[in-house]
Amino acid sequence: MSDYAGDLAPRQAWDLLASDPSAVLVDVRTSAEWQWVGGADLSELGRRAVGIEWMTSAGEPNHRFLEQLGQAGVDADTPVLFLCRSGHRSAAAASAATAAGLGPAYNVAEGFEGDPDAAGHRGSVNGWKVAGLPWRQS
């Protein structure tokens, strides 16, 4: 059992974001991942995903993570959904947010790219992209 509000499949995450305008999607991958791999596109919902690195591009923990969540408008009454590549960093972020009294906090369990396939490549088994949800690449 997790210490946050729960794990959501990408389609469940989308449905929550679509049904609750106060819900915030926070992409906790690195800025390099946002730039080169792409990210969730919430423009049809009239908003954007918030990018806050859980780990910096240098591989260090982001010590300002909780502060940056607050700056993004996340508080004790804000449903917040965390997304990373595969659902591991986002689970840790959801736990940290919950421990800080923020949320309810959810983990998008399959992440943006999902699990690796038999050849070790992501983006074909599950995840936000495979679910056919809106995304864009810069």
TrEMBL record:
Q: Which residues form the Rhodanese domain?
A: 19-124
Any Pfam family from its record, for instance, is Rhodanese
> What UniProt keywords apply to this chain's record, in alphabetical order?
Transferase
Q: Which InterPro entries match?
A: Rhodanese-like_dom, Rhodanese-like_dom_sf, STR4-like
Q: Name one GO molecular function term.
A: transferase activity
> What name has this protein been given in UniProt?
Sulfurtransferase
